[in-house]
Each structure stands twice: as structure tokens, then as C-alpha cells.
Amino acid sequence: MSIPSIPDMKLYYSNKSTLIRVICRTHQWSGIQESNLTDWIQANFKDNEGRYLAVKILLHSLYYSENNLIELLRHGIYNIIIGQEIKDSLIQTKNIFVPHSISEAAVKEKLSKILFIPLLDGNKPNESANSIVRYLTSNIAIEQKNTAFHFHINPTDLNNYEKIIILDDCIGSGDQLDSFWNNSFSSVRSEAQKINLPVYYMALIGNEKSVIDLHLEGRLSGLRVVICDKLDDCNRIYSSENNIWNSNDERNFAIEYFDDIESKYGVPRLGHGNLDFSLVMHNTVPDWTLPIFWTENYDWKPLMKRKNSSG
Known about the structure:
- About 45% of the residues lie in helices and about 10% in strands.
- The chain is of the alpha/beta class.
- Helix 9 links the parallel strand 4 and strand 5.
């Protein structure tokens, strides 16, 4: 199957533009306003091919609202980490019929012995780290005393906990996790190892392959990793496993089109780590998502800005 004709592209764009208006007006895309989206398309994509491809990618993107992120955080803590521990304990004791009040008390007891640490890019709290701490205390019923930035931790305080959970909103290439675990967090890590205190890393959304690669390289020795919502190659826009494209011809056409955009306007086709996910979280996008969304220069208008949009 060849690429669509220009009339077919125009028809697709017209039909899907109506759908996008409905999505924006019903606030299904967190942080994306209809006016901003219209400006982004009209400013950057002057031809039918570009508007067809832009709208197609938008409609095959992943969107996480603030509520989605909070639910993933809750799921990871209560179901994946604590829930699994309680289930294993009940199975070992062969006593799975426990009253709800008792299991609830067991969960509360376990929460009180966890230290939650947001992963930082450098040693300064950023917007995503502050958001995670706010979600913990305001939405997940975690006490403030159970949260800390890694540079505020007193080694003697670690004796008060049964585990540490490093929290991150998302992981793409894994570079930030690698740097944090092996550099910024190294002193806390050493102290935790001395007292056999287990350390978890929990990302709400993540590229599982990058974590597997880091483990195989020995970069995450001693770290237990949990990804609440796992992404793989079928979520990558230019992957042959993604069902976004009608044929390989159309996928190759898209690659050539955005390679030309990169050549003309300085907007890379691939994000950080040569990744090509199309992902929007509440009011932000990670740098490993498609740069067409967040790059800003004289010739290109971003849909959503990042701290490194200009450059």
C-alpha cells in the first residue's frame, strides 16, 4: 500500500480536526489548549502532508492527566510494592482470609516505614519532583516526615525505615536514573547497603528496554525497579511495530518528511537518547518524546514548552 493521495490527506486532516476540537473542548488532553494546538499546526505545517502527519501522530500519542499520574503512583505503592509483600506474607502463613481492618492496618504500618525520595536531575528540586511530593502528601496519604530529598538525609535516620523508594514521573533513556543512582545518590546508597535497607526505583511511566539495558550493563546493581505503566517498541512512533502507519511506505514517508524538517528548521526528528515516543503528561512533555512538540526556535513554535525548549 502506497502513501495516501493529497485529497485523501486533506480529507483525513479535515475529519480528524473535528475530532481534535471535541477532545480539546472536553479536556481529554491534559495541558493542551485548542488554541495552542491550532497555532502549533498552522505555524509549523504549511503543506497538506505535514498537517496529515502531525494530526496522525497527535491522535496516536499517549496522554496522562494529573489524575492518571496520581492513580499510577497509588497503584505502584499500594498494589505493586506493598500489596505484593502482604500477599506473599499471607500465602506463607496460609492465612489469606484476613479481615479488611487488619490488612488495612498492615498497609498503614508498612507505609510508616518507607522513605520516599524524588529523583532529581542535579541537586535542585524541579517541577516534577515537587509534584510527586505533593501527590504523595495530598493525594496518597503519605506523611510529610516520610518524604525527603536525598541531600537532606541523615544516615542515622535510615535506621527508622524498612525500605527506600526513589520516585520518578517517567523514564526514557535511563540517563538520569543512571546518573542519580551512581553519583548523586551514591552516599545514601552506601549507607543503605551497610544496614541492608532495600532501595526501590519506581517510575510512573517508562521505557522498559532502557532499564533492562542498564541492568545488563551493571549500572543498577542493588536497585529494585518498578515501572507502573511500561512502554515498548509498539509505542515508538517510527517503529515498524506501531500500528499508526498504514504501510512501511507511509512510515518511510513520515521519516523522510521529518528528516527534512530537521534539516530546514533545526527540529530533531528523534528525542533524547534517539527515542521517538509521543507522550504528553500533565502540563509537560519529557525530552525523549518527539521534539516537534517542544522545540522552540525562530522557525518553530512549540506545542508545549520544556526548560530546554530553546537552544
